Amino acid sequence: MTGTMPHHLNLVDGEWVDGERRANHNPARPGEVVSEYALADRDTARAAIEAARRAQPGWARQPVAARMEILDRIGATLLRRTEELAVLLAREEGKLLAEARGEIVRAGQTFRYYAHQLLQPQGEVYSSTRPNVHAEVRRRPLGVVGIITPWNYPLAIPAWKVAPALAHGNTVVLKPAELVTASAGELARIVAEAGTPPGVFNLVMGAGRVVGEELLTSTAVDGVSFTGGTGTGAHVARQCIAHGNKRFQLEMGGKNPLVVLDDADLEVAVRCALDGSFFSTGQRCTASSRLIVQANIHDRFVAALATAVSALRVGDPLDPRSDLGPVVSPEQLAQNLDYVRIGRDEGATVVAGGEHHPDEGQFMRPTLFTDARNTMRLAREEIFGPVSCVIRVNDLDEAIDVAGDTDFGLSAGIVTTSLSAAERFKRDARAGIVTVNLPTAGTELHLPFGGTGASNHGPREQGGYARDFYSVPVTCYTGW
What is the pLDDT of residues 69-86, one digit of tens each? Predict the structure, then answer.
C-alpha cells in the first residue's frame, strides 16, 4: 500500500484512533483497493462506550435548537457531497451510481427530517382521575446506544438509526459492516465536523465477534439497534438479555412474496417483479424472492419476465449503461451460486440467468426459476442475491396462504386491477409492509419500517415511530 492510499480511522471521544490497517476492494474490479481502514479491537470499542457514557448527560441537556442545528448541518453536508459520496459508495459496495445518489440523498434528508422532528410534541398531557393532580408523560433518552449496520445500505441505514438516536438525546457507538468502512468513515467525518461534541458519536470498525460483541456484552450500553441476518440477530438478542437485559431492536431478513393475479396488468406485473427481485443485485431485505402467480397468467408472465431478465445488462456500477452491479463479495457470490445449484437439485427450472464467468469478477447474471414449490429451500431461505422463483397457484385464497407460509414477514406485494382483492390482501398479508401494484422494495423515511415473525423484533424504525426505541416514557404526577 502506498502512503497516499485513502484511509479511515476509528472515532473515539472526538479523536481519530488508528489500528491495524485493512483494505477494502472494489467488487466490480476485485484487484482495485478502494480504501484502507483501521481495525478496532475490544479496547478501542470499550473506550468508545466509556466516552459515550460520559458524554450522554451533557448531550441530553443540550437545548433543542443546538441539537437541531447539528443534525441539520449533517444532512446538508451529505446532500452537498452527494456526487462524491455516491461514487465512493458505488466503488465500495457495487451499487449503481444512480442508486447510490438516491441513497446519499435519502441519508441527508433523514438527518434533516429528525432535526425538525424535535419541534413536534415530545410528550403528552392527561387528565388525572384525582383532584388537584396534573398527569403527564415525558420522554427521556434511552442512554448509550450501540448501532450495528449491514453492508447493503452503507449510509441510509446508519442514517435512519443514528439521526433519531442523536435527536432524542442519546449518544452512539456505530459499528458498520467491514465491507463498507469507507462510507462509514466519511459519515463519521461529517458528523464530527458538524460540531457534534466529543463522545456523542463514536465509530468503531472491525469484526462483529470483537467490537460488536463488546457492544452486546457491555453493561454501559443501554440499547442495541441491529440490522442484519436472522441468525446473528438471534445472537444479539441472547447477549442483550444476558448482559444487563438491555433494550434491543432487530431488523432482519425477508422472503418476500409478490402475488400476481390473473387480472393484473402484465406490464405492471413484470415491472414490479423485475425491480423488486433483481434491482440492487437482489441485495435488499425487501426483495421479491417469491413470485406467486395465478395459473391463467402464469405462462405469459414467466415468458415476459424471463425476456426482461435476460435483457438486463450486468456491469460496472459507474457505467450508466449498467442495469445491475456486482455481488458485494466473493463469499456472497459463492452463496448465490450455491443456491442456484440447490434450486436445480430440488427440481426447479432456470429460465433466465444462473451463470457466472470467472473472468468477470464478482458479476452474476440475474436468475429466474420456475416450477418452484413453497417447500423448497429456494423458496424458504433468504438468498440475498439476484435470484427469484415463480410459484404457480390457482386463486387468491391459495396465493394468500402461500405468501404467508414463511418464517419471515417483512414485505409483501400484490399486482391486481381488483379493488376487492387489493383490500383483502392488505388486510390478510402477514407482513409489516404491504404494496399494491408496486415493487415490494422501497420505503419512505417518514413512515414506519419493519416486519413480523423472523424479520423483526422490537419497535419499528423510521418516522415518528423511531422514538419508541430511542426514548423511554416517564409518567409524572404533580399535586398542588
Answer: 999 999 999 999 999 999
CA–CA separation, 141 and 222 (whole Å): 10
Q: How far apart are CA 240 and CA 75, in angstroms?
A: 31
Contact yes or no for 225/55 (Cβ under 8 A) = no
pTM for this predicted structure: 0.95
User: Rounded to an integer, what distance in angstroms lies between the CA atom of residue 433 and that of residue 285?
Assistant: 12
386: amino acid identity, one letter: P
Same topology, domains 7-252+448-479 and 256-436? Answer is no
Burial of 193 (0-12, 13-18, 19+ CB in 10 A): exposed
**CATH for the stretch 256-436:** 3.40.309.10
Q: In what order do the strands lie in the sheet with 133-141?
A: 124-127, 133-141, 471-479
Q: What percent of the chain has pLDDT over 90?
A: 95
DSSP label of 453: G
Q: With left for phi above 0 and alpha for psi between -120 and 50, is residue 297 left, alpha or beta?
A: alpha
- The Cβ of residue 95 has, within 10 Å, a number of other Cβ atoms equal to 28
Give the chain's end-to-end CA distance (angstroms, integer): 71
Among 260, 318, 288, smallest CA distance to 385 is for 288
Query: Which is the CATH superfamily of the domain at 7-252+448-479?
Result: Aldehyde Dehydrogenase; Chain A, domain 1 (3.40.605.10)
Report how far residue 447's alpha carbon sits from residue 55's, in angstroms, rounded to the nearest whole number.
Answer: 30
pLDDT tens digits for range 321-370 = 999 999 999 999 999 999 999 999 999 999 999 887 666 679 999 999 99
* Contact predicate 356/365, CB 8 Å: yes
Cα 34 from Cα 153, distance rounded (Å): 17
φ, ψ (nearest 5 deg) of residue 125 = -110, 135
Tell me the DSSP string of 49-112.
HHHHHHHHHHHHTS-HHHHHHHHHHHHHHHHHTHHHHHHHHHHHH---HHHHHHHHHHHHHHHH
Instruction: Return all residues near 436 (Cβ < 8 A) that are at least 6 apart.
Output: 413, 414, 415, 416, 422, 425, 426
Q: Which residues are catalytic?
A: 285
Amino acid at 254: G
CA angle 232, 234, 236 (to 5 degrees): 70
Instruction: State mean pLDDT over 180-201.
Output: 98
Q: CA 473 to CA 87: how far, in whole Å?
A: 42
DSSP H/E element including 472: strand 471-479
**Any idea where the domains of the chain sit in the sequence?**
7-252+448-479, 256-436
d(CA 177, CA 36): 14
Distance between CA atoms of residues 221 and 243, nearest Å: 10
**Phi, psi for 89 (deg, rounded to 5):** -65, -45
